[in-house]
Amino acid sequence: MILSNRPFWAAIISWAIAQGFKTIRPIVTQRKFDATRIVGTGGMPSSHSSLVMALTTSVGKYYGFDSAFFAIALIFSFVVMYDAAGIRRAAGKQAEILNYLIVHHELPNFSKVKELLGHTPLEVFVGAILGIVVGLLF
């Protein structure tokens, strides 16, 4: 049953901690609440990396670090983290350029697009470390 699945809950808890930090941090540093940060992408730490590494670590802990389950989870984690720091980050940089063009060239048929899509390597690394710690604790 899913309610007793520890790897599942380790992943969810790690994701919630990362998203919570991204929501609380602007309140403390800028005195501004941004509700989009509750489920938004991008920022420190990477909740995607945190989620997959908590899942991977917990799977290793419960099924063995030499199990096929751990290998599958680890490869899945690498793909997600590569995507977060590589592909989605590049898409975010392209969005910045598009928004610049839309604003500075007054293109009325276009609206600005979301820029904060991916992560820096540091954001991915911190998210992964958070996930490992949560995966080991739960």
DSSP helix fraction: 55-70%
Total helical segments: 4
- By secondary-structure content and strand pairing, the structural class works out as mainly alpha
Helix-strand sequence: HHHH
Arithmetic mean pLDDT: 87
Low-confidence stretches: none
Strand-residue proportion: under 5%
Provide a descriptive summary of the structure in words.
The protein is mainly α. It contains 4 helices and no strands. 32% of the residues are buried. The mean pLDDT is 87.
List keywords for this structure.
single chain; 138 residues; mainly alpha; 4 helices; 0% strand
How is this structure best summarized?
By secondary structure, the protein is mainly α.
Protein topology:
Elements: H1 6-30, H2 47-63, H3 68-104, H4 121-137
Helix pairs in contact: 1-2, 1-4, 2-3, 2-4
